[in-house]
Design a protein that fits this description.
It is elongated and about 65 Å long. Helix 2 crosses helix 3. Helices cover about 45% and strands about 5% of the residues. The mean pLDDT is about 80. A two-stranded antiparallel sheet has the order 1-2. It is mostly helical.
Length: about 130
Amino acid sequence: MLDPEKVATIRRLYFAERWKIGTIASELGVHRDTVRAAIETDPLHRPRRLRPSRLDLYLPFRRETLERYPRLRATRLLVMIRQRGYLGSIQRLRCVVPGFDRRPVSPFFAWSPCPGNKRRWTGRTLAR
Protein backbone atom coordinates (compact mmCIF):
# COMPACT_ATOMS: atom_id res chain seq x y z
CA MET A 1 0.00 0.00 0.00
CA LEU A 2 1.30 3.41 -0.92
CA ASP A 3 1.53 6.22 1.56
CA PRO A 4 -0.50 9.35 0.76
CA GLU A 5 2.66 11.35 0.06
CA LYS A 6 3.75 8.98 -2.73
CA VAL A 7 0.21 8.92 -4.17
CA ALA A 8 0.24 12.72 -4.27
CA THR A 9 3.62 12.64 -6.04
CA ILE A 10 2.34 10.13 -8.61
CA ARG A 11 -0.78 12.18 -9.26
CA ARG A 12 1.24 15.40 -9.58
CA LEU A 13 3.65 13.82 -12.06
CA TYR A 14 0.83 12.34 -14.13
CA PHE A 15 -1.73 15.13 -14.16
CA ALA A 16 0.36 18.30 -13.77
CA GLU A 17 3.61 17.38 -15.47
CA ARG A 18 2.11 14.91 -17.99
CA TRP A 19 4.57 12.08 -17.38
CA LYS A 20 3.75 8.65 -18.77
CA ILE A 21 2.87 5.77 -16.46
CA GLY A 22 6.01 3.79 -17.30
CA THR A 23 8.24 6.79 -16.67
CA ILE A 24 6.66 7.41 -13.27
CA ALA A 25 6.96 3.73 -12.36
CA SER A 26 10.65 3.56 -13.23
CA GLU A 27 11.43 6.88 -11.56
CA LEU A 28 9.74 6.00 -8.26
CA GLY A 29 10.61 2.28 -8.31
CA VAL A 30 7.04 0.97 -8.24
CA HIS A 31 5.05 -1.25 -10.58
CA ARG A 32 2.96 0.22 -13.40
CA ASP A 33 -0.24 -1.19 -11.90
CA THR A 34 0.52 0.64 -8.66
CA VAL A 35 0.83 3.88 -10.61
CA ARG A 36 -2.46 3.20 -12.40
CA ALA A 37 -4.18 2.50 -9.08
CA ALA A 38 -2.88 5.77 -7.65
CA ILE A 39 -3.97 7.72 -10.72
CA GLU A 40 -7.53 6.51 -11.01
CA THR A 41 -10.12 8.25 -8.95
CA ASP A 42 -11.86 6.32 -6.24
CA PRO A 43 -13.89 3.78 -8.28
CA LEU A 44 -16.39 3.07 -5.50
CA HIS A 45 -17.36 6.67 -4.87
CA ARG A 46 -17.53 7.98 -8.42
CA PRO A 47 -20.59 10.16 -8.92
CA ARG A 48 -23.02 8.37 -11.19
CA ARG A 49 -24.54 10.38 -13.97
CA LEU A 50 -28.22 9.62 -14.17
CA ARG A 51 -29.63 9.83 -17.64
CA PRO A 52 -33.28 10.69 -18.14
CA SER A 53 -35.44 7.69 -18.92
CA ARG A 54 -38.41 7.43 -21.25
CA LEU A 55 -40.37 6.31 -18.24
CA ASP A 56 -39.70 9.49 -16.22
CA LEU A 57 -42.67 11.27 -17.79
CA TYR A 58 -45.05 8.51 -16.69
CA LEU A 59 -43.83 8.04 -13.11
CA PRO A 60 -46.52 10.28 -11.51
CA PHE A 61 -49.23 8.38 -13.39
CA ARG A 62 -47.68 5.07 -12.35
CA ARG A 63 -47.48 6.17 -8.71
CA GLU A 64 -51.10 7.27 -8.42
CA THR A 65 -52.36 4.25 -10.37
CA LEU A 66 -50.50 1.84 -8.08
CA GLU A 67 -51.77 3.69 -5.01
CA ARG A 68 -55.32 3.19 -6.25
CA TYR A 69 -54.80 -0.38 -7.49
CA PRO A 70 -51.83 -1.94 -5.64
CA ARG A 71 -52.34 -5.42 -7.15
CA LEU A 72 -52.23 -4.19 -10.75
CA ARG A 73 -50.01 -6.29 -13.01
CA ALA A 74 -47.10 -4.82 -14.93
CA THR A 75 -48.57 -5.87 -18.26
CA ARG A 76 -51.80 -4.01 -17.57
CA LEU A 77 -49.91 -0.93 -16.42
CA LEU A 78 -47.82 -1.12 -19.59
CA VAL A 79 -50.98 -1.05 -21.73
CA MET A 80 -52.27 1.95 -19.80
CA ILE A 81 -48.98 3.83 -20.16
CA ARG A 82 -48.64 2.93 -23.86
CA GLN A 83 -52.04 4.53 -24.45
CA ARG A 84 -50.45 7.72 -23.13
CA GLY A 85 -47.47 7.49 -25.53
CA TYR A 86 -44.82 5.35 -23.80
CA LEU A 87 -42.59 3.57 -26.32
CA GLY A 88 -40.34 1.59 -23.96
CA SER A 89 -40.37 -2.06 -22.98
CA ILE A 90 -41.94 -3.96 -20.13
CA GLN A 91 -38.49 -4.94 -18.83
CA ARG A 92 -37.67 -1.31 -18.11
CA LEU A 93 -41.05 -0.85 -16.45
CA ARG A 94 -40.40 -3.85 -14.21
CA CYS A 95 -36.94 -2.52 -13.30
CA VAL A 96 -38.28 0.85 -12.24
CA VAL A 97 -41.42 -0.37 -10.50
CA PRO A 98 -40.61 -2.39 -7.38
CA GLY A 99 -42.81 -5.31 -6.50
CA PHE A 100 -43.77 -6.39 -10.01
CA ASP A 101 -41.81 -9.60 -9.88
CA ARG A 102 -44.32 -11.64 -7.90
CA ARG A 103 -42.73 -15.02 -8.45
CA PRO A 104 -42.02 -16.80 -5.17
CA VAL A 105 -38.36 -16.64 -4.33
CA SER A 106 -36.81 -19.73 -2.82
CA PRO A 107 -33.82 -19.28 -0.55
CA PHE A 108 -32.51 -22.61 -1.77
CA PHE A 109 -31.12 -23.76 -5.03
CA ALA A 110 -32.91 -26.41 -7.08
CA TRP A 111 -30.26 -29.12 -7.30
CA SER A 112 -30.51 -32.35 -9.20
CA PRO A 113 -27.61 -34.70 -9.79
CA CYS A 114 -26.38 -35.05 -13.32
CA PRO A 115 -26.77 -38.50 -14.81
CA GLY A 116 -23.32 -39.99 -14.94
CA ASN A 117 -21.89 -43.18 -16.27
CA LYS A 118 -24.68 -45.65 -15.56
CA ARG A 119 -23.24 -49.05 -14.90
CA ARG A 120 -25.19 -51.86 -13.36
CA TRP A 121 -24.19 -55.28 -12.26
CA THR A 122 -25.82 -57.99 -14.39
CA GLY A 123 -24.20 -61.02 -12.91
CA ARG A 124 -21.10 -61.74 -14.92
CA THR A 125 -19.93 -58.49 -16.48
CA LEU A 126 -20.52 -54.79 -16.19
CA ALA A 127 -23.00 -53.74 -18.84
CA ARG A 128 -23.31 -50.20 -20.06
